[in-house]
TrEMBL record:
Protein family (similarity comment): Belongs to the VPS41 family.
CHCR repeats: 552-696
Residue intervals of the Vps41 beta-propeller domain: 14-343
The Vps41 C-terminal RING finger domain, residue ranges: 771-808
GO cellular-component term (any): lysosomal membrane
Keyword Acetylation: no
SMART domains noted in UniProt: CLH (SM00299)
InterPro entries reported for this sequence: Beta-prop_Vps41, Clathrin_H-chain/VPS_repeat, TPR-like_helical_dom_sf, Vps41, Vps41/Vps8, WD40/YVTN_repeat-like_dom_sf, WD40_repeat_dom_sf, Znf_RING_Vps41
Organism: Oryzias sinensis
Keywords: Autophagy, Cytoplasm, Cytoplasmic vesicle, Endosome, Golgi apparatus, Lysosome, Membrane, Metal-binding, Protein transport, Transport, Zinc, Zinc-finger
A biological-process GO annotation: endosomal vesicle fusion
Native organism taxonomy: Eukaryota, Metazoa, Chordata, Craniata, Vertebrata
Protein location: Cytoplasm, Cytosol; Early endosome membrane; Endosome membrane; Late endosome membrane
Record-given protein name: Vacuolar protein sorting-associated protein 41 homolog
């Protein structure tokens, strides 16, 4: 069992499984001591001196008996064709897996580590190193003999070697060194921090992240070292490369292994815990953490406790962490167990989401990665999501998700509808049922409509409006609605819905009858859409009562279908509605309803006096005597004045303005419109004994009648309000007239002079004549030219001659003195 120690809401980054099959059989009677990973196979060394080659499932493919004691290290080159093995009894073997030719040597002391050159398969890189008390480099020369070079000694047992490209890193009791094999220089010495820890019990862990980055873990300390090129100007006697520690930090537990994961680190920790009963520390389950290194610390990304077999008996040195280059696979090796850790894939992520009942996220993840998931099916996850929602009573959400989950699977849709029916939630799923290309059986839709009809008239009406009529049996639903109307005949919702059902069934007369009864706004749309004008000829009053404006507009727009005479006939008993209709007709066209203009006079007088005067002005078919009679009966002064003036009785009209209205301004305006001198005399005569009227005349008469005529008739001594101001205005208006006349005269004179000068310049301009010089040519001011012999005979005035062309056209400047005078 492998448990995440982080909060249960956080998903683990890695998943774990035991390496079984052949490994299980090996570890029953033996114990693992080391393992090396290649992308093609695994190499496992045991305490009893055997080396097994395994496939990635743990099945044994080859077995080598190397020694009778513990295998300390196995090394593979990059090709996986050669292997190096060292054991506790001093044996070192380097051979080809397919040739068995190579190096075999026995030393008199244990050899802890061996490392092949990464390119060992190539003939010019036949090199490997071993580590015991000394670091020895073996290199095969051209005579096929092995040459040995001591690279380092004197600092205790060498416990780890890692070879990457041209750099060899190794650890001894003092610290970590790096050797550059290309320059044959040792370039660094990284001292270990905690010297109190026994190096044999808490060995150093080394791994290369890339060709120039070494990660060192020792005790509870991690250091990330970057190998850099030294500036040539600073070399002197120094190595060409140097190491910079870019990050160093302490961890909580002891480090048993390291591996890179992109820019993060995978760290295997050996854990000791204090017990409550005893003060002694006990060995706890090892932990595999993913951490993000920082310059002076780290951030923990994930942490998992691993229940490996016999973890209570293991020490820090018993654990190893091996990883595959270029692939996120990590192997945790302990004496009795090998566990594989790998990054979680999308299937694992979906598993975790389902366990946490995050079904919607699981469904979304499956839809996004449907091509990559192997163990899961999008629709099954969706169905599990629906089950979860229904179980929790989230019926509305479940219904909404049906469209996404069920898709176009009709069988699933119908099953789900019946499931909603069983739990009494048909209403929830109703608005999400398919109604496009995919359609369920009509019985499904009818079942839902009947359910709504029992409990929710408004919801039933909404579905009828939204669902296409072909989804269900229309006649069956009409019958059901009629049955309900027998119990509640005045229910407007049911009546409206029934009208819609009739409309879909093309029984428009029944639908129209219901709409008119309900005064429903859709009645006009129904009439237009289905051309029901023949059905409304006897229902015009009903339509007008419902909405006069819409009804009149509709009737006027469709005169070809319902004649004006028919409408007037229907509205004869409702004069107020007839007036509305005829008024709008007159507004549209003054001549269409001309035979009803006489009738309209009374209608305007009765119902709409403000529009009577405009009607009288615009109508040319209105009988004036009839109109005058009606207006005089009702004492409509303004209308009477207009009719009198139109009939030619201007003096009587003016008298009414003065006597009935007493409005001098209106009287003056009337006189201006008529522009009749006798009318002005009558106005002056009527106003001469009324000072306020005289003031009004003085203020307005100046531009139409000589003010002297009025002033001479004013009685001496009569007190006239604002006389001085009125006289000043008369003088001002007169002065303004004089100025205007003078201005106009100046403009006329200037224009005349300008045109005369232009004509003079034009006539004085020379004219180019091309032709035979032996002929005499006569040129007129109009630019027409004639041979002298071709000129017509002279006119009646001696000495004057005219252009024959221009005389004929009777136009053109300068065509002759006589014509200019004309």
């Amino acid at each position: 069992v492998f448990e995440s120690e982080e909060d249960s809401e956080e998903e683990a980054k890695l998943k774990y499984e035991r390496l079984s099959n052949g490994v299980t059989d090996i570890l029953k009677n033996d114990a693992a001591s080391c393992m090396t990973v290649h992308d093609k196979f695994l190499a496992l060394g045991t305490h009893f001196g055997k080396v097994y080659l395994l496939d990635i499932q743990g099945n044994v493919t080859q077995k080598f008996v190397i020694s009778s004691v513990k295998i300390n290290q196995i090394s593979l080159d990059e090709s996986g064709d050669h292997v190096g093995i060292c054991s506790e009894d001093g044996k070192v073997q380097v051979f080809g897996l397919y040739t068995r030719e190579g190096f075999h040597e026995n030393f008199d002391c244990p050899v802890k580590v061996v490392a092949l050159h990464p390119q060992f398969s190539r003939s010019n890189y036949k090199q490997f190193v071993t580590g015991g008390n000394k670091l020895l480099l073996y290199e095969r020369n051209w005579l096929n003999r092995w040459k040995t070079v001591v690279l380092h000694e004197g600092e205790g047992t060498i416990t780890n070697i890692q070879w990457r490209a041209n750099l060899i890193a190794w650890a001894n009791n003092v610290g970590v060194k790096i050797y550059d094999i290309s320059t044959k220089q040792r370039i660094t010495n990284v001292l270990r921090d905690n010297v109190s820890l026994r190096p044999d019990m808490y060995p150093c862990s080394l791994c290369w992240k890339d060709n120039t980055t070494l990660i060192v873990g020792w005790g509870t300390s991690i250091k990330i070292c970057a190998v850099k090129e030294r500036n040539p100007t600073e070399m002197r006697d120094l190595p060409s490369r140097y190491v910079e520690i870019v990050s160093a930090f302490e961890t909580e537990f002891f480090i048993s292994g390291l591996a890179p994961l992109v820019d993060q680190l995978v760290v295997l920790f050996f854990v000791k815990e204090n017990t409550e009963q005893m003060d002694d520390e006990v060995r706890a389950r090892p932990r595999l953490d993913i951490i993000q290194p920082l310059p002076e610390g780290y951030e923990e990304i994930s942490s998992d406790a691993l229940t490996v077999r016999n973890f209570e008996d293991n020490e820090c040195r018993d654990y190893r962490l091996a990883h595959a280059e270029g692939e996120p696979l990590f192997y945790i090796i302990s004496p009795k167990d090998v566990v594989v850790a790998k990054e979680r894939d999308q299937d694992d992520h979906i598993d975790w989401l389902l366990v946490k009942e995050k079904y919607e996220e699981a469904l979304m993840a499956a839809e996004i990665s449907f091509k990559n998931i192997k163990r899961h099916d999008v629709q099954k996850i969706g169905m599990a999501f629906l089950d979860h929602l229904l179980k929790n009573g989230e019926y509305e959400v479940a219904a909404r998700k049906c469209q996404k989950v069920l898709g176009k699977n009709m069988e699933l849709w119908e099953n789900e509808v019946y499931r909603f029916k069983e739990i009494g939630q048909l209403k929830a799923i109703s608005q999400y049922l398919p109604r496009g290309d995919l359609r369920l059986r009509p019985a499904i839709y009818e079942m839902i409509l009947h359910e709504f009809l029992k409990t929710d008239y408004e919801g039933f009406a909404t579905l009828i409006r939204e669902w296409p009529g072909e989804l269900y049996n229309n006649m069956a639903i009409v019958q059901a609605v009629n049955d309900h109307l027998k119990r509640d005949p005045s229910n407007s919702t049911l009546l409206t819905t029934l009208a819609e059902l009739y409309t879909y069934d093309q029984r428009y007369d029944k639908a129209l009858e219901i709409y008119l009864r309900l005064r429903h706004k859709d009645v006009y749309q129904l009439i237009h859409k289905h051309n029901l004008f023949s059905s409304i000829e006897d229902k015009i009053v009903l339509l007008m009562d419902f909405d006069k404006e819409k009804a009149v507009d509709m009737l006027l727009d469709n005169e070809d279908k319902i004649s004006i005479d028919r409408v007037v006939e229907e509205l004869a008993d409702r004069p107020e509605l007839l007036h509305v209709y005829l008024h709008k007709l007159f507004k549209r066209d003054h001549h269409k309803g001309q035979k009803y203009h006489e009738r309209q006079i009374g209608l305007y007088a009765e119902y709409d006096r403000p529009n009577l005067l405009p009607f009288l002005r615009d109508s040319t078919h209105c009988p004036l005597e009839k109109a005058l009679e009606i207006c005089q009966e009702r004492n409509f002064v303004e209308e009477t004045v207009f009719l009198l003036s139109r009939m030619g009785n201007c003096r009587r009209a003016l008298q009414m303005i003065m006597e009935e209205l007493g409005d001098v301004d209106k009287a003056i305006e009337f006189a201006k419109e008529q522009d009749d001198g006798e009318l002005w005399d009558d106005l002056i005569s009527y106003s001469i004994d009324k000072p306020p009227f005289i003031t009004g005349l003085l203020n307005n008469i100046g531009t139409h009648v000589d003010p002297i005529l009025l002033i001479n008739r004013i009685k001496e001594g009569m007190e006239i309000p604002n006389l001085r101001d009125s006289l000043v205005k008369i003088l001002h208006d007169y002065n303004l007239q004089i100025l205007l006349r003078e201005g106009c005269k100046k403009i006329l004179v200037a224009d005349s002079l300008s045109l005369l000068q232009k004509m003079h310049r034009t006539q004085m301009r020379g004219v180019r004549v091309n032709g035979d010089k032996s002929f005499s040519v006569v040129v007129f001011h109009c630019r027409h030219m004639f041979h002298k012999e071709c000129l017509p005979s002279q006119g009646t005035i001696p000495g004057l001659q005219f252009c024959n062309i221009c005389s004929a056209k009777r136009r053109g400047p300068g065509s002759g003195i006589l014509e200019m005078k004309k």
